[in-house]
Amino acid sequence: WRTTMLIIHQMLKKYELHTIDDHMHAMKEVIQEIVLSGLSRTNFFTQAAFYGGTALRIFHGLNRFSEVLDFSLLAIDPDFRFDPFLSTLKNEMGSLGLDIGIKVKTAQTQIESAFVTGNMKKLFQTFYPNSVEYHTGLHAHEKIRVKIEVDTKPPEHATTEMKYRLLPSPYQVRLYDLSSLFAGKIDAVLRRGWKTRVKGRDFYDYVFFLSKETPVNIAHLKARLIGSGFIDPDFELNKESLIDLLDRRFGDVDFEEAKKDVLPFIKDTARVNLWSEAFFKDITKQLKTTR
Q1: Exposed e or buried b for every residue in 201-226, given b needs 16+ CB within 10 A?
Q2: Going by C-beta distance under 8 Å and a sequence separation of 6 or more, which residues neighbour residue 113?
Q3: Helices marked H in 61-199 — which ranges?
Q4: Cα angle at 221 between 215 and 222, to 5 degrees?
Q5: 3-state secondary structure of 3
Q6: Which helix or strand (DSSP H or E) is residue 225 part of?
Q7: pTM check: above 0.85
Q8: Residues 62 and 121: beta-carbon distance below 8 Å
Q9: Is 148 in contact with 23 (CB distance < 8 Å)?
């Protein structure tokens, strides 16, 4: 038990924990990393790669919290099921003293989903035994939930790389490289939500990629947009036409609503003060693409 607590304490050391939300975000993210560690002890990453906001957060230092563990198979497999990995994940959680359940959601879609769940109050007491002032405010039956999604019909032309982490114990993860991650994010910026139904976290990540001068994997982005029906197969997607698509998208976004969406997930709220149609159109002039 003492060794378990030392590992969890070590994983929590990188966080600034001042509020109840800080504690909750950190706890969820540590559980996410334990899931990744557990999956690495199976053959999961010979079949799939990690992508999305949580991949950016954990492996590339994105300074916002993310709720979902997104994975994409390396090749189309409509028969893929997450069930074979459940026992290893439960063992990984149990080895760290965490009382966690994992359930697979059965649905007739290309996304295979699972949920890691546990009693919020009990887990909080395990993670933060000395933060008694927060324990009393938690409902006895409230649940913590970490969502896992696997795309079983992945778009083509993504490229991947292997990354390594040391805690809870050394493990490796296959994930999309930055250019392919950026392609997935631009796909989300263009297609996810509309008008007031906008996911500001996508726009926050978009700025993050531009700040890193990451080129877009244009072949992978085109495959994504064709697969969703957003563009026709004969559409010539290049830097100029992509900027035009993005500019039109920015003209339809309510950026005040976008800010509201992302604020609960970031500490420095000043980072979104400049958000506007003009801001996004101007920074998009810096966009780079792969050949």
Answers
A1: bbbbbbbbbbeeebbbbbbbbbbbbb
A2: 82, 104, 105, 107, 147, 148, 149, 150
A3: 86-95, 120-127, 132-135, 178-191
A4: 125
A5: helix
A6: helix 218-227
A7: yes
A8: no
A9: no
Please choose, from the candidates 135, 125, 142, 131, the residue with its C-alpha nearest in 3D space to the C-alpha of residue 18: 131
| Owner of token pair 């938690």 | 138
- The 171-176 sheet, strands edge to edge: 101-105, 111-119, 143-151, 68-73, 48-51, 171-176, 160-165
Give 156's Cβ-side CA count (13 Å radius): 5
144-198 per-position pLDDT tens digit: 999 999 999 999 999 999 999 999 999 999 999 999 999 999 999 999 875 557 8
Residue corresponding to tokens 């697969």: 227
Give yes or no for a contact between 173 and 52, defined as CB atoms under 8 angstroms apart.
Answer: no
- For residue 194, the surrounding DSSP H or E stretch is strand 193-194
| Residues 6 or more apart whose Cβ sits within 8 Å of residue 124 | 23, 27, 131, 134, 135, 138
List Cβ<8 Å contacts ≥24 apart for 93-100: 93/31, 93/34, 93/38, 95/4, 96/4, 96/7, 96/8, 96/34, 96/168, 97/1, 97/4, 97/5, 97/126, 98/31, 98/34, 98/123, 98/126, 99/123, 100/31
Residue-wise pLDDT tens digits, 103-139 = 998 777 899 999 999 999 899 988 998 877 676 677 8
